[in-house]
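[09:14] KT: can someone run the structure on this one? pasting the chain below
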Amino acid sequence: SVALDLGANLYYSQGLGGLAVFGALALAEWGGVPGKALLEAVIAGFEVAGRVALSFPQNWRVEGSRLIGMASGVGPRWVALGAAAANAKLRALDVERTAHAVALAAASIPLRPTQRWTSGTAVPMAKYGLFGGMAASALTNVLLAEHGFTGDLELLDAPDGFHQGLGQTCTDPGAMTREFGKRWLTSELNATHPWSEA
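[09:31] RB: done, structure tokens below
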């Protein structure tokens, strides 16, 4: 769990590995899905999440081998959309149901917990991501969408939607779809993240 949590360094995506893998792995085991389909689903999850990250303000810089700041500017909560995409791909949802699954996941992302987990006498167990809850929510949302449950399809594009809900603006809405299926962010990991060789 910790290796997956810290091992996904696509745009400071702590938690993406766990979120994109755990739900998809459970679905693959449950449905007897081949490993190739699982791998395709996880890659799809990384690609979707990475593009969502690029739509936020990029508040980071590289100094030597260190990343200063976070690429998304809002912490790692956008990684839940990667989980929804991976799970939807594994369940072979059509485009419309996949869109609803991602919209439902976006609507289910928790508020940012307090930063008191780093100090104080009573340190809360809930830190910054609540990844287990987001993984469970993404899995549930995909299964709901598969059976016709709908979400707000404008949530990722609307000015009062997902980005604003995380206290940010969508500075590059085109990043979420630009060159999707042609440019693979996961293949650029070494060029885009200084921790990739660590």
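[09:33] KT: thanks! The longest helix spans residues 35-54.
[09:34] RB: yep, looked fine to me
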